[in-house]
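Weekly structure sync, notes
Attendees: PL (lead), two postdocs, one rotation student
Agenda item 3: pending single-chain targets
PL asked that the sequence for the first pending target be pasted directly into the notes so everyone works from the same version. It is reproduced below exactly as submitted, 353 residues in total.
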Amino acid sequence: MLVSRGQLDFVRGQVQAGAQPWAAAHNQMMTSRYASLSRTPAPRSVVECGSYSNPNNGCTDEREDAIAAYTDALAWYLTGDARYAQKSIQIMDAWSATITAHTGSNAPLQTGWAASVWPRAAEIIKYTYSSWPNANRFATMLRNVYLPMVRNGSNSNGNWELTMMEATVGIAVFLEDRSAYDAAVTRFLNRARAFVYLPSDGALPYTMPGSGLDTSAETIGYWQGQSTFVAGLAQETCRDFVHTGYGISAISHVAETSRIQGRDLYPQVGERLRQALGFHSRYQLGEAPPSWLCGGNLTRGLGPITEVGFNAMSTRLGNVMTNTQTLTLQQRPAGTNNLFVAWETLTHANNPN
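Predicted structure, written out during the meeting:
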């Protein structure tokens, strides 16, 4: 999921050749704390996460251990050093032997963040490393602890549900659960349409079934008070670019995973992804917003989230994306947001596979 073996083989060749930007991105990953072979996992039976991770009882530990497991899995594949595979397994085993539940108001989002990353690590190890005795226990953890929390989504907010569907898709791929995958893709397509506006949606944005939005006032309120709608505007643009970036990233991750799995969603979500990236990159680069956009005030901070979508829509599909390209090049090597995005310059920059 997210990266195919062909993509990883391409990256490995570029790193071995010392080519840029992959060599710099690889060095960034390998020198990060997430690649440390002395890392000690910190699993908890119950991870309790309140709003904005307050309280934070295991929330940061869980997310960062998941990123470390994925980092180590990538490091193993790209270097051939088995110590990294063993470290990835150690981290995954520690959590699968311990965790039983997520609690607190942010539990669905926390579960979505962690479960977006765990399967990436697990999938690489499962198919490329010789021995993982506790792989079935890890699968049971995903099925019993994570999947029930994320599979039915959230009617509350766009970035939440998009992240939860990314997690569900990843879990479903690892478990080879076709029914969970199909249901998640259906919900994802609805939510992606409800998160990013296109003029073809009509005068007002599309609303997600079950959202309860049926009047213009309610819809505008849901879009942070924005009443002028243009291509690429997102439901949370006027909240801040950070949360908007989470949603855009999840859209790109699900589309990429589904492409690898043989179901191409880019004809359905690609134009929204392209427009969202271009619109937000334009203002992230510093252009002053007009008065009709969020009252002329934007809270920037899009994060390292452009590589996957830019590679899909520009490198592979040939779209000209000037603003997204400028921002993407400016941010290389894109690192991690310490939540569910990690090392995407390394895995997806100029990757034709």
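Discussion points:
- The chain has a mean pLDDT of 97.
- The radius of gyration is 19 Å.
Action: rotation student to compare against the earlier draft before next sync.
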